[in-house]
Amino acid sequence: VLSSRKLIRLFLLLIVLGASGILVFAVWKGMMRKDQRLDQASEPAEAEMKLTDMEYIEMQDGKRLWALKASEATYHQAEQKTLLKSVHLTFFLEDGDEAYLESRDGALYAGTKNIELWNEVRATLPRGYELLSDRAYYEHQKSLVTSEAPIRVTGPEFNLTGQRWEFRIPERKGMVEGDV
Predict the structure, then answer these.
(1) Is 23 helix (H, G, I), strand (E, B) or coil?
(2) Which of 28, 41, 86, 160 is 20 to 30 Å from 61 at the Cα level?
(3) If DSSP codes are grouped into helix, strand and coil, which group holds residue 1?
(4) What CA–CA distance (Å, rounded) separates 79 from 72?
(5) What is the rounded average pLDDT of the residues 160-169?
(6) pLDDT single digits (tens) 118-154
(7) With b meaning 16 or more CB within 10 Å and e meaning fewer, what string describes 133-159?
């Protein structure tokens, strides 16, 4: 037979053990939630702004340098870039001609105004030249389009392939290198 004193001690011991168990569980649960918040914070940020049928024209000294059109543009502030879908880039040349770049995807970098294109890149140049590649990169400060991806060039009098290419916009000069 347990005395009432031993019964009270046993009851208090059970209460202390129960409270301790609840405290340990609460601390563990809080740590799990913190880990989940850290995991969510490390995931790529959602776009801060999303536009459809976007068009941007770059001007210099009252002249159009280039025009950028995309079916969709999502701006990511942390990376200072805008991701683009169905990209159409038009370069306005000094003599009034135009050169075109198109791709399925691309990115406009806000700080530099450089543009990267990928997935089925097609360049259409004056005098009937067409270039096909998987990537192209426009360097705004240099007015230069380059690529380290394989390329196929067709024109009125030739058809060639290479491993790299560049097109200097102001000079209207192109170059293909590597296994030409």
Answers:
(1) helix
(2) 86
(3) coil
(4) 18
(5) 89
(6) 999 999 988 888 999 999 999 999 999 999 999 998 9
(7) bebbbbeeeeeebbbeebbebeeeeee
Q: End-to-end CA distance of the chain, in Å?
A: 101
- Cα–Cα distance, 38 to 72 (Å, whole number): 30
CB < 8 Å & 24+ apart, contacts of 127-135: 127/155, 127/156, 128/155, 128/156, 129/153, 129/154, 129/155, 129/156, 129/174, 130/154, 130/155, 131/165, 131/167, 131/174, 133/165
How many angstroms separate the CA atoms of 135 and 147, rounded?
Answer: 6
Q: Report pTM.
A: 0.71
Neighbours of 4 (CB within 10 A): 7
Element (H, E) at 35: helix 4-42
Of 99, 127, 123, 98, nearest to 176 by C-alpha is 123
Q: Name the DSSP letter for residue 148.
A: S
Separation CA 125–CA 93 (nearest Å): 10
**Eight-state DSSP code of residue 126:** G
